[in-house]
Amino acid sequence: MDILEGVNEYRNLPASLQDAGKLLADLMAKLAECARKGDAQGIIATTRQIADVVKTIKAECKSLAANCRDPKLKDSITSASNAMGNWSMQLKILGGVKAASVGTKDATAESNLVSCCEGISKNVRSAMFGCETAKRAKLI
Q1: Which of 83, 90, 89 is nearest to 125 (CA)?
Q2: Which of 59, 64, 49 is nearest to 84 (CA)?
Q3: What gap in Å lies between CA 24 and CA 54, rounded to an integer?
Q4: Which tens digit of pLDDT belongs to each residue from 8-32?
Q5: What is the block-wise mean pLDDT of the chain (140 residues), using blocks of 10 residues?
Q6: Do residues 100 and 40 touch, judged by C-beta distance below 8 A?
C-alpha cells in the first residue's frame, strides 16, 4: 500500500490531485501511528480527514473521467472513484469501532482497518492510473 509511490508515478495529473494523493499517504501513516499508540481521538480524527481527502480525490478523478473520450477508461476511472468513496466511508465507521476498543486487543477491528486502507489505496492508484493513461493518450 504505497500511495506516495503511485502519486509520484503520475506526473501528468493536475498538481491538486497529486497534492491530495500525497496528503492521503501522510494521513495513512498518521492513522497507523495513532493505532499503534492506542490514540482513540487520533484514530477518529484521522479517519475523518482521510474520508475528506478521498472525497476530494474522487471528485477530481470523476471530473477528469467526465471529459475522457474512451468509454472503457472512463468507466474504469469512475468505478475506482466510487469504490474509493465506499472504502473511505467504511474506514470512518471502523475507525470509531477501533477507537472504542482501544486498550483491548481487537484483531478483527485492526484487520478491518487495514483492509479498508488497502481498498482505498488500490482504488486511488487505479483511478490515478486511469487518469494518467487518459492524459498521456490525450483522451482528456
Answers
A1: 83
A2: 59
A3: 7
A4: 677 889 999 999 999 999 999 999 9
A5: 64 91 95 90 95 97 96 97 96 87 75 92 94 92
A6: yes
